[in-house]
Amino acid sequence: MKNIVLLCAAGMSTSLLVTKMKEAAAKEGFECQIAAYSLAEAKKVVPDADIVLLGPQVRFNQKRIKGDFPDKIVECIEMRDYGTMNGAAVVKFAKEKMGL
User: Fold this and answer.
1) Residue 97, burial from CB neighbour count under 10 angstroms (0-12, 13-18, 19+)
2) pLDDT tens profile 17-46
3) Contact 47/69 with Cβ under 8 angstroms?
4) pTM above 0.85?
5) Which residues pair with 75 in a beta bridge?
């Protein structure tokens, strides 16, 4: 089971996207854990992640997060997919980046 971690400014704005992603993953039978956290919680939650997805509002932190966790996949969610809450597209993106 893959662990997908979303990071945003406060951990709140991505909650709807997480719901949409869980629905999309269930629909295609992709077993995964998806949760959103604030950027401040990164040191606690990233070590267990298979992939870290950054919300558009914190994308400028990508280099720092990659530096702190060089063995982790750290990507930015496309602004369009985030804005439209396209959970299926974000799940597809995460799977591609994990090589699935």
Assistant:
1) middle
2) 999 999 999 999 999 999 999 999 999 999
3) yes
4) yes
5) 53
Determine the Cα–Cα distance for residues 65 and 20; give it in Å rounded to an integer.
25
The greatest distance separating any two alpha carbons of the chain, rounded to the nearest whole angstrom, comes to 34
Return d(Cα 57, Cα 76) in angstroms, integer: 10
> What's the per-residue H, E or C state across 43-78?
HHHHHHCCEEEECHHHHHHHHHHHHHCCCCEEEECC
Q: What are phi and psi of 5, to 5 degrees?
A: -110, 130
With beta carbons less than 8 A apart as the criterion, state whether 17 and 64 touch. Answer: no
How many residues does the structure list for the chain?
Answer: 100
Active site residues: 8
Cα–Cα distances (Å) from 29 to 13, 22, 25, 53, 68, in that order, read 26, 10, 6, 21, 32
Residues forming a β-bridge with 32: 2
